[in-house]
Write the C-alpha cells for this entry.
Amino acid sequence: MSIVEISGLKKYFDAVRAVDGVDLAIQPGEFLVILGPSGCGKTTLMRMIAGLEKPTAGSIQINGADVTELPPRKRGVSMVFQSYALYPHMNVYNNIAFPLKAQRREKKFDKATMRGKVESIAKLLEIDELLDRRPRQLSGGQRQRVAIARAMVTQPAVLLLDEPLSNLDAKLRANARDELKDFQRSSDITAVFVTHDQIEAMGLGDRIVVMEKGKIQQIGSPQHIYDEPANEFVATFLGSPSMNILRGERHNFGFRPEHFLPKTLQDNPENSVSFVYFVKRVEYLGSDRLVYGYIGGHENKLTLAKVPSNVRVSLAIEDEYEFAVQYDNIKYFDEASGERIKAPADFAR
Amino acid sequence: MNLLGLGKYPLDNRRLIGALFLTPALLYILLLVGFPFVLSIAFGFSDVTVGNTDLSYVGFRNFLNVWENDIFRQVFETTIRFTLLSQIFILIFANILAVIFTQDFTGKWFARFIFILPWATPVSLAMIGWLWMLDTKYSPIDYLLLQMGLLGRGGLLSDNRNLFWLAAPDLAQISVIFVQVWRMTPLATVILMAGLSSIPTDILDQAEVDGSRFMRTLLQIKLPLILPIMVIALLFSMITMFGDMTVVYVLTRGGPVDYTRVLGLYSFQVGIEGGNLAQGAAISLFAFPLLLAMAIFMLRTASRAEVR
C-alpha cells in the first residue's frame, strides 16, 4: 500500500492553475523526486502535502487516512525548506527539539526522552558537537544537517525536502547529495524531494515525477524517463545538452546529441539513419566535443552532437560529414500534442 | 563643466550625493535639536530670566535649587511613574494589535486606517477631543455610565451623576495615562507590525509543520525575533512621553493640585510662564542623563538580541 495517495489534486491561485489535477501514489521507503522548471507547481504540490496550502479540489491520504482538511501537525510529515528555516534565536539543540516540544502534550514524553531523541539524531547526522551553537555560527552544510535532524527527530511518515541542496556551493553539493541518499536509505524514510535540477533528480530519485504547467508529464525511474520520454517536454527538459527535435513530414522526431555520431563510429551502421551534417562550431569540453551544426534539409534548426574526445575523428569547421543515429534512438512525437508516438512503419524523415 | 572637480555627472559621485541627502537631517538636528539643547545648557548654568537676558555664570545653583524643591521631586516621580505605567500598557496593546493586524481578515485595510488615526491626529486637536470626552459635567462617558445605571443615585460607581474624570486625583492620573496609551499605541503597533511582517515566511511555515500552535509560535518564535524592534518601539514612545507636555497642558494643566504635573509641563510653567528661564532649563536638563542612560541601555539590549 502506498504511504501517500494523492488524487485529483488542484490548486488555483485566482486564474493561475499552479497544480492542475495531480494523481500520485508514493511508496513507503522510496526517494521520490518532483522535477520541473520553476513555476511548474512542484513546490505548491509539496506544500499541499505538508498542509501549508489548502487544495482547491482533490484529496490527499497519508497512511490510509484522509488528511486533506487536517493542519500540518496532524499529518505526520516534516519538511526541510530551501532556506533551512532554522530558528535564528535558538541554539542547535533547541532547534532540533522544537518539534518535540510542540508535540509534547500529544505524544507524552518526558524531558529525558526528548534529550535522548535529539542527541541520537544529532549523532546520526554528525552534528552532536554543535548542539550549543547558534545557526549563524554554522556553515551551509551544517545548517542543512540541522534542518534534516529537526525534520527527522519526530520520525515522520514522510520527509518533504524543498530544494535543500540549492543553497550549498557546487563542491559541497555533490557530497551532500551522496550523504542525503545514504541517510535516506539507512533510515528507510519516505522522502519527497523537490528540485529543478535534473542532475540532482537523476542522482537521487528512485522515481522521478516530471511536472510542467501544474500537471504531471511522466513518472518513472531516472533511466526510464531519460530513455523513454513520454512527450517532447520531458525529452527536451532532461539531458544536457537537450534532445535535438526536428520537424518531419507528419510528426516531429528527436535524438539525443550523444547518439548523433559520425557514421564511422556507429557500432551498427546498417541499423541507423544517415544525415549530411554541416559543422558550424566545435566546443571542446574535455571528455567530449560539443558540435553545433545543421542537418541537410533542416538548416533552420541548430542540431547538436556530443562526440567523445577520445575517438580519433577530426571535425573541421565549415565541413560536411556523414553522421548517423541508430533507429531505436530516434523518438517520435505528435506534432500537435507533443505526445510520444510509436515509430511509424514507413520510416521517413 | 569641471569647475568643482566633480566631473561631468556630479550626481553619480557617491560622496557628493551622500552629503546632499544627509544635509536636511543634519540641518534639522543642528537647528531644532542641537541649538536649543546647547542653549538650555547655557541657560541652566546662568541666572537668565525673561526680564534679564544677560547670561552670567552661576554654577550648579539652579540645579541645586531645583533638586531641593519638593514640587520638583514630586513632578519627577510622577513623570517616571506615568512613563513606566503607560509603556507597560502600550507594549501589551501594541503586541496584541500588531498580531491582529498582521492576520488576514476582511476590512483589514479599514481597521488599520481607523486605528492609526489617534497617532495621525495633531496632539492638541486630539486632546481637545478628550477634554470634551472627559468633561466634568458633560462627559459622554459619564452619560453612558449613567444610562447603564452605574452612575447616579444608587449607582455602582458613584451616587453622583458624574465621575469628575479630570478633577479627582486618581481618575485624573488614570485619564492622563489612558490618553497617553491611546495616543502612543498606534506608533508602537506600526513598528511591531513591520517587525512581524519581516519574519521570513519560511520560519513561520516551518513552525507550523513542526506542529507549533498559535501561542507557541507567538511566544517562542515571533516575539523573540521581533525583540530588537520592540525595544526600539519602546524607546521611541518612552522618550516621546517623558518629554511630553501637550497632553497634560490641554487636559489638566498639571492639576488637580500637582497630581498630573510632569517634567515637560513643569519646566514650561517655571521657565516660560513664570519667566525664570534658568530654572526652567535646569528642570528640563534633569531628564537628559536619565534618557541618555535609558537610550544607551536599550540600544545595547536591542543589538545584543539581534540574531540575524
